[in-house]
Design brief:
The chain is an all-alpha fold and 682 residues long. It is 58% helix and 0% strand. The protein is globular and about 105 Å long. InterPro entries: FAST_kinase.
């Protein structure tokens, strides 16, 4: 239940329609830019509400203002309240994300430090044991002991050789660069392996104290949330109810027919014209497109309604202006709800999208980009006439847009699966090429990802300019940027040779930070490297395997299948313990596998030298039996090949179902697929 109103009662009176301030709208990818709308000196109550909105520290305070004055608040004030709530929630999410990454980093450092401490302790204990043995035994006993060691009775010689090999291997490996904790300069805080060795040489008889990595205290984690603990008594439903009330009040200012579709509207919207890449539905950051509907639009002219008013874009623009809903207000409302990650309903978003499209010609560049980005983030595909109006304005403003705005526009088109025309793409590549040098890492990665999602390869000169602009910034790239860029290079099938140096530099830069990557980012990165046939160095492969094991409980079934397939495709040789752990982790995920996941996982495990148990084999065939109807010829061939490599004989029921599903479509099999299947069966 929402909190009751607690602010002092102010005398209610009708607010005069304010004028929207001339500030720039917030950029699509950040919450900075447009300030609060200017209420004007003619309305003291409006100025007071504007100040209360600007000083609010949580959405709960905004809810109190809405409870008292929501019915009389003008659209600019409603959009200002929604924007303030979105920014506060975004700051809270950013704080939680930073706290989680800090916790991951601290745990990773503590784990590494603990491993080095254990290795140093084991080496020191072995050295002391050898010294004690040499001091205690006379020469005769030592010789007898050496003879016993040669005969293999006690195995001391083998143990000493193993310890010496471990010592040489540990000393040959460079120490990790560990930062001092608590903001101290390097060397002032923390405990590294070098200082531990010096301490052990000075005090050889003292045992070092080991501490298991502990998560930060609860109070410290809450302190990192930037005051978010004050909202713990309110649920997400309360916050969504507040946003829903804002949407209802804002839409009430527009005509009731704003979100309706004209009868003469013909659905001639652009189509994506491309298929989803195999295994990349979750890792490509395609956005939530579940909100696309085919029955809400407004643009176009409709005959007069019962009241005599024409339902055209011009009529809607005039009605929005009369209600105080200027171009910036519609875009600000869309941006606020997109940042909040909440879709209030198609009757609200459709009305705001219609108003934004009707007023696009009178809007500035940032407002148009803001509206397009917000619609893509909300997963709301406008009607073809609306989309053409918005993208037409975007194309006209391409030369004046910055790199971030350009990347957001192409990202929006890819997210909504609306492939722009060839003329738009030519203008886009020409306008964005000179601005790549000053672009941020997220903008560079998003442009390349959108090109891959749209199957729109850029010119070779543009690709070279992109590589030159992104190379100096690789140390600042995040996990999502790295994964999206590598996936796009593999999807666009760029030749590896021009990007070989760029990929090598990228891997050497991001390898120490792989423990901060999510499971989806690790899977997407490994898939792209395997598709590009980019080899991994020994230290890079070790960092990847360790990062995967740190995320083993949170990895999804498809992500496990992609990782295993990528390692097998690259010819990697993970340790047997890692492969056994991967088999154990895929056991509960088998029931979530798809056709390609079943085929890739079985083939990859066979190539990696795994030995799944009989129970794993039984669950694999039982879970894949119901999916055989959806198998393609290459899936059948790959699964049969994997079973043959593992020397498995599939159950009779499973083989009968395979024969039944493939009997009528053998003519569509490729010769290589048919040969692989027959070879596996033979």
């Amino acid at each position: 239940m929402l909190p009751p109103a607690g602010l002092p009662q102010l005398q209610r009176r009708a607010l005069q329609r304010p004028t929207f301030g001339g500030g720039a709208a917030p950029d699509a990818s950040s919450g900075h830019g447009r300030g609060l709308p200017s209420q004007g000196a003619s309305s003291p109550l409006g100025l007071l509400l504007q100040k209360q909105i600007a000083d609010a520290e949580s959405w709960v305070e905004l809810q109190l203002v809405l409870n008292q004055h929501g019915a009389s608040m003008a659209p600019p004030l409603l959009s200002a309240a929604a924007m303030r709530a979105a920014r506060l929630q975004q700051a809270l999410r950013d704080g939680r994300r930073r706290a989680q990454q800090a916790e991951w980093t601290e745990t990773h450092k503590a784990t590494i430090q603990h491993a080095w401490d254990r290795a140093d302790e084991f080496a020191a204990a072995a050295q002391r044991r050898r010294q004690q043995q040499q001091q205690r035994w006379p020469e005769q006993e030592q010789q007898q002991e050496q003879e016993q060691q040669e005969e293999g009775r006690d195995g001391w010689r083998l143990q000493d050789e193993w310890e010496e090999q471990e010592e040489r291997r540990r000393r040959a490996r460079p120490l990790p660069q560990l930062e001092a904790r608590g903001g101290d300069p390097p060397g002032a805080g923390g405990r590294d392996a070098a200082s531990l060795r010096v301490q052990q040489q000075q005090q050889p008889h003292q045992q070092p104290q080991h501490q298991q990595p502990q998560p930060p205290p609860l109070q410290q984690r809450r302190r990192r949330l930037q005051g978010g603990e004050m909202l713990t008594k309110y649920s997400d439903d309360d916050y969504h109810a507040f946003l829903q009330e804002v949407a209802r009040l804002a839409t009430a200012q527009l005509p009731p027919w704003a979100a309706e579709r004209p009868e003469e509207e013909e659905d001639e919207g652009g189509q994506c014209g491309c298929e989803e890449p195999e295994g990349e539905e979750e890792e490509g950051e395609r956005g939530n497109v579940t909100g696309r509907r085919g029955d809400q639009s407004l643009a176009g002219v409709r005959p007069a309604d019962e009241g005599g008013a024409t339902r055209s874009a011009a009529a809607l623009a005039a009605a929005a202006a009369a209600a105080g809903l200027e171009p910036g207000v519609s875009a600000a409302l869309l941006w606020s709800f997109a940042k909040a990650g909440y879709h209030p309903g198609y009757e609200h978003v459709g009305a705001w999208a219609a108003a934004a499209a009707a007023q696009a010609a009178d809007s500035d560049d940032i407002t148009v980009c803001q509206a397009v980005w917000a619609l893509a983030s909300l997963g709301h595909l406008p009607w073809p006439s609306q989309w053409r109006a918005l993208m037409g304005e975007v194309r006209r403003r391409l030369p004046s847009l910055e790199a971030r705005g350009l990347s957001n526009m192409l990202w929006a088109a890819a997210t909504l699966e609306q492939r722009p025309s060839d003329g738009f793409l030519r203008d886009f590549w020409a306008a964005s090429a000179p601005k790549l040098a000053g672009a941020q890492p997220q903008a560079l990665a998003n442009i390349l990802w959108a090109a891959g999602a749209l199957r729109a390869p850029p010119p070779r000169s543009w690709a070279q300019a992109w590589a030159q602009a992104s190379a100096p910034q690789l140390s600042r790239w995040g996990g999502r940027d790295v994964a999206n860029a590598v996936w796009a290079l593999a999807t666009l099938r760029f030749p590896r040779r021009p990007f070989a140096v760029w990929l090598s530099r990228l891997l050497s830069t991001c390898a120490p930070r792989l423990h901060l990557f999510s499971g989806a980012e690790l899977a997407q990165l490994s898939w792209g490297l395997a598709a590009l046939r980019q080899p991994l160095a020994e230290r890079q492969l070790e960092a990847l395997l360790n990062a995967v094991m740190e995320r083993k409980t949170s990895l999804k079934g498809r992500e496990w299948a992609m990782l295993l397939w990528s390692l097998a495709r690259q010819g990697a040789a993970p340790p047997p313990r890692w492969v056994a752990a991967a088999v154990a982790c895929t056991w509960p995920k088998l029931r979530f596998f798809g056709p390609q996941d079943f085929a890739n996982a079985l083939w990859a495990l066979a190539r990696l030298g795994a030995a799944p148990s009989v129970a794993w084999r039984g669950r694999y065939f039982a879970s894949s039996l119901s999916q055989l109807f959806f198998f393609e010829p290459r899936h059948h061939a790959q699964a049969l090949t994997g079973a043959a490599l593992l020397r498995w004989r599939p159950p009779a029921e499973w083989l009968d179902r395979v024969f039944l599903e493939t009997y009528g479509g053998l003519m569509s099999w490729r010769p290589a697929e048919l040969a692989a299947a027959l070879n596996a069966l033979g």
